[in-house]
Design a protein that fits this description.
The protein is built from 18 helices and no strands. With 437 residues, it is mainly alpha-helical. It has a single domain, classed as MFS general substrate transporter like domains (Growth Hormone, Chain: A), CATH 1.20.1250. The chain is globular. It starts with 13 loop residues before the first helix and ends in an 11-residue tail after the last helix. It is a multi-pass membrane protein. It is found in: Membrane. It holds the Pfam family MFS_1. Keywords: Membrane, Transmembrane, Transmembrane helix, Transport.
Amino acid sequence: MNTVSTTAPMAVPASSVLDQAVSKVKWRILPLFVVMFIANYIDRVNIGFVRSHLEKDLGIGAAAFGFGAGIFFLAYALFEVPSNILQQRFGAKAWLTRIMASWGVVATGMAFVQGETSFYVMRFLLGVAEAGFFPGAVYYFTQWLPNRERGKAMAIFLSGSALASVLSGPLSGALLQIEGGGFHGWQWMFIIEGLASIALCFVVWFCLDSHPRDAKWLTDEERNELTAVIAAEQKERDANKPGHVSAFSLLRDSRIALFCFIYFAIQLTIYGATFWLPSIIKKMGHFTDFQVGLFNSIPWLISIAAMYMFAALALRFRHQQMWVAIALTIAAGGMLASTVGGPVFAFVAICFAGIGFKAASSLFWPIPQAYLDSRIAAAVIALINSLGNLGGFVAPATFGFLEQRTGSIQGGLYGLAAASMVAAALVFLTRKSKTAA
């Protein structure tokens, strides 16, 4: 007797479907966000390479430079929460494209500043334009990746800032040597780097999707599985915080204040090093702008390796707060050591500090992400980032004031070391029993 065998196709296990979806998301979204962050960070910090040129051509001294470099972050803090709320309304695709286009226009306009007042105005407008990008990206990951993947994704994303710091030195140094067309080298630097961001916004518009349900590059099964897992994780977090149903109630939570201070301390050290490192390098010898840029890349190359090393350790030995504290302690030690010896020793010490402050930045975000109610996560993430980023105002403004009044930034370096140590101690107070990172 002949029998006909009808074998139904085997169903793909849900875990395999999820892994496939996550892999596709990481390969498509993370490289795009890294490139976006590189452009964002270069347009934000390239001002550090033109300090001497602004003083020579426009008469902008150390105190004015420090205030102008930092006022960006005041605007960033004022407009970041509204920007992130608007992203939820208009969608990530439209809003992140808008952010890139506007900051590219303003970054290009930096080439046309005429003195202190226009310098302040343009730096403030750049902060307004960029507001919302970073917390928007962080919140975007919560909508696209399961909890277990976000720490690694944040490390990859934040490597964009380290890569930008590596690239911005040689790139800006090379552009500073361009002369012609009625513009100085520093003007060409702003024009070319700003126009690059404008061009990138077209790529973002065509490649970015606002939600997993919009992703035609995922199969129906992958979209459904990814959406279901992320929704279940968010529901579980919400269930653990029944009293936290509004932004106002969360803002009264002491942990939110701790998150803000810890991130403030991290950013204080990062931007203190970022804006003043080129000046420290110039004291090491008679270097061209390009050579200064090459030296400036060294601490950030080291920090990239440190970020991945710490991310791997935190994944294997789960205790997020401990790893953040270790990283902050390393940062404090490096900044403290930079106050002794000459410029060369200071440079080496800051290279050591870079191991800590960049790793701390990437290790920090999974802690508040695991704590926040998803219904107000976007606004509170923006709040933490905006208030924390005020460190980017305090550090350069204080360093500029100290250098102009005393001829030294040593007091500022002591302050950075102290802030990092306090933050290292306070990070343990963010621990919680059920949903600790």
